[in-house]
Amino acid sequence: QVQLVESGGGLVQAGGSLRLSCAASGRTFGNHAMGWFRQAPGKDREFVGLIRWIGGSTYYAESVKGRFTISRDNAKNTLYLQMNSLKPEDTAVYYCAASIRRGDPVLIAEYDYWGQGTQVTVSS
User: Fold this and answer.
1) How far apart are the C-alpha atoms of 88 and 122, rounded to whole Å?
2) Nearest CA to 81 among 40, 47, 110, 43?
3) How many Cβ atoms sit within 10 Å of the Cβ of residue 61?
4) Were 81 and a residue from 20, 41, 89, 98 both cysteine, which residue would form a disulfide, CB within 3.0 to 4.6 Å?
């Protein structure tokens, strides 16, 4: 079993930055993919990006590429999402998730464990 707990959400002005954290516990992580998703009000949950726990390779959605950066601290079992140049359309609940699948999973169904989410609100 895996437990994921996000933190770091809040209110920020457009153009600002925010860093989200996701603390993972409960089992030893092999070459999991750790992903970030977000869900805006009235919209479907969407893929933001992922990082491989081992190796650190990353993959991002086009909408955040160049603005968001995913990293991890293996010693702390913590995943991060650094968000820069934030836009009002980035407003959403952000979720971290863990997948045991190979490749670069981008679909919700490919992830096995989820956090409870943290709210990010970007004001214009």
Assistant:
1) 5
2) 47
3) 16
4) 20
Give pLDDT tens digits for 31-90: 789 999 999 999 999 999 999 988 889 999 999 999 999 999 988 999 999 999 999 999
pLDDT tens-digit map of 106-121: 999 999 999 999 999 9
- pLDDT at 73 (0 to 100): 92
Q: How far apart are CA 39 and CA 31, in angstroms?
A: 26
CA 108/CA 124 separation, integer angstroms: 29
Kindly report, residue by residue over 17-31, the tens digit of the pLDDT. Answer: 999 999 998 876 677
Q: Is 73 exposed, middle or buried (0-12, 13-18, 19+ CB in 10 A)?
A: exposed
* Separation between Cα atoms, residue 82 and residue 30, nearest integer Å: 23
How far are the Cα atoms of 11, 31, 55, 58, 81 from residue 94, in angstroms, in the given order? Answer: 13, 22, 24, 18, 10
